[in-house]
Amino acid sequence: MNTVLYYLLLFWAKANALLPMKVLYWVSDFLYIIIYRLIGYRTKVVRRNLRASFPDKSEAELRKIEKDFYHHFADYIVETIKLAHISEKELQRRAFVQNPELIDRLMEKGHSTFIVFMGHYGNWEWYSGSSSRFVDCKIHQIYRPLNNPAIDRLFLYLRTRFNSFCIKKNDTFRDIVKLKQNRVRTIVIFLADQTPSRGNLHYWTTFLNQDTPMLTGAERIARKLNLPVLFLDVQKLRRGYYTLEIKVLSESPKETPENWLTEQYTRMLEKMILRAPAYWLWTHKRWKYTRADKD
Using CB atoms within 10 A of its CB, is residue 45 exposed (0-12), middle (13-18) or buried (19+)? Predict the structure, then answer.
């Protein structure tokens, strides 16, 4: 049954992906009305998150961010569907890496495996699936399998169309060790702004004016294996166009204090969100734990 559903979803995605971006954005405008105006998808969560994150903003300012977010969220949906048909050249033009040569310079120093911190900002699906952005370097994405096998399989297809790979969360350390041992030139992407599980509430900081637990797994792997750590700074220029800048957090993680990399990532992510708040994933229940849950 899941196989049948997968092929139905794949056919639907490919059929819709044939539409020009202009038409897909008309679809997005319609989706905005359904998701936001009619259904009110997670509006309570979004409003709670925005009020807590921006206590100094007026209700009018918060409502504008909210509306802009739902417009962008609808765009994210159609842009992700477009992955089923878009060419790699077009994808790289619309999600443009400003400084890919940074990876080449690090490789010239002898590095082969890199860890990249990203956030659920802009359209992360467009940034993480095109290995040919970099010379002789593959992209591996860490992901949590979705509950629905058919939808999970569809997203794996979309994320790996352009010769990138996905690593299941539970296989992360083992697979990265293999990549390093085999000297595979690769970028391993972590979407590190997710909420840790209750059993992993190890590091807390202030993020967007709130007491926030942060995932530390990527940092622990980077420090243990001494892998250079990078951050992907994203800006949305206009509808369907993003620029990406790779920034170095550390070339020698072993030399950094514990949790320093996680803190630096948090500050850079926060700065990026504050620059244009509407493009972060505000529907996520990011602050469902308190420090009391750690005990």
Answer: middle
Phi-psi region of 259 (alpha: psi -120 to 50; beta: other; left: phi over 0): left
Q: What is the pLDDT of residues 30-62, one digit of tens each?
A: 999 999 999 999 999 999 999 999 999 999 999
Give dist(CA 231, CA 286) in Å, integer. 20
- Alpha carbons 25 and 119: distance in angstroms, whole number: 24
Separation of alpha carbons 95 and 86, rounded Å: 12
Q: Which residues pair with 113 in a beta bridge?
A: 186
Q: What are 234's strand-pairing partners?
A: 244
> What range does the domain containing 198 cover?
2-294
For residue 103, count CB atoms less than 10 angstroms from its CB and return exposed for 0-12, middle for 13-18, buried for 19 or more.
buried
User: What is the number of structural domains in the chain?
Assistant: 1
Query: Where are the strands (E) in 169-240, listed by range?
Result: 186-191, 203-207, 210-214, 229-238
Cα separation, 103 vs 188, whole angstroms: 12
* Cα separation, 58 vs 62, whole angstroms: 6
pTM equals 0.94
* Residue 124 in tokens: 């992360």
Residue with structure tokens 């505000």?
A: 282
Query: Look-up: residue for tokens 């202030």?
Result: 206
Contacts of residue 127, Cβ cutoff 8 Å, sequence gap at least 6:
95, 118, 232, 234, 242, 244
Per-residue pLDDT tens over the stretch 219-240: 999 999 999 999 999 999 999 9
How far from each other are the two terminal CA atoms of the chain, in whole angstroms?
A: 43
